[in-house]
Amino acid sequence: MLDPHRLGVFQSVMVTGSVQEAADNLRMTPSAVSQHIAALQRQTGLDLFDRVGRGIVPTAAAEALIAQAETVLQQWHRLDDYVADLRDGRTGRLVLGYFPSAGSTLLPSIVRQITAEFPDLVVELVLTEVGARSTIPDIDVAMDHTENTRRPGYRKVPLTEDPYVLAVHHEHPLARRRAVTLTDLKGEGWVSNDSFANPGHRIVLAACAAKGFTPRFTVQAQDHHSALGFVAAGVGITVLPRLAARIIPDGVVRVRITDPPVRQLVAMVREGGVRNAVADRVLDLLVRLSRHPSRRQRVQRS
Asked: Which residue, 8, 41, 82, 162, is most buried by CB atoms nearer than 10 A?
C-alpha cells in the first residue's frame, strides 16, 4: 500500500517543481524529500523525475500518478477531518463549493437554516474557481460550462439564470437610462471583473462578439469587488452578473441590459453509495432560493 505521507511529499514536489521548495514548504530537509521520492519510485517501479541541469522535470508517469494521487489525498485529508469531528463530538461535515457572488447571496441563509436543523453539523466552504479545487465538495454551486458537464462522480441540477447588468458611475450619461443595449456599451472603457480564463468572462466576450464588437478593457481586475471600486472612482464601466451587483458602493448605479449576457447556475451534486440527508436538504433549499430570489434573506422550513 502506498504511504499517504510519501504521496504528499511527491505532490509538493510536483506543485513546486523543486525539491528545495518542497522541503521548505514541508519543513523538511531536501535530503529527506529526495529519500521519500526515491522510496516512492522503488515502491511503484516508476521513474518519476528526470534530471535536467540542476533541476528536475516530471515524467509522463509522474503526471499520470499525480492526477490520481490528488484525489486520494483529498479523501485522506477528509478522513482526518472526520476523525477529528468524531473526537470533538461532532457527527457530520458538509463541504459546500461556491463562487464569490453565490457565497455572499445564496449561501448565508442556507447555512443558517441547515445549521439550525442539524446542530452538530460542520459546514466547510470551499472557493471552487476553475482549476482551483483543493478538496472535493459534496455540493458545488457553480456556473454551467463544459468542465462541469464532464465532471466525473457528480450529477448536475439546474438552478437559475443570472443575467448580467451594467454598473456605471452615477455621473456617467448612461446612469440616467432605465435600460441599455449591449451595443450601447461598444465605445466605453470597460473594467473586467473576472479572470480572463474563467467562464464568466468568456460569456461576456461571446455576447459582445455576437453584437459585432470586442470590449475595450482599460482595467483588468479579477473580482467584482475591485471592479466596482474602479467604477465608483469613474475609471470605466463594468458588466457583471446580477448576483454580483446585488451590493454596490456609493456613487455606482445599476442599469438593466435589455439583451444581456446570461450565465446558467447549477448545483453539482456528488454521488456516492450512501444517501446524504444533509446534502439533500441543502439542494432542496438551493432550488427553492434560486426560483424565489425574495427568500434569500429568509428561508422557510418545508
From this structure: 162
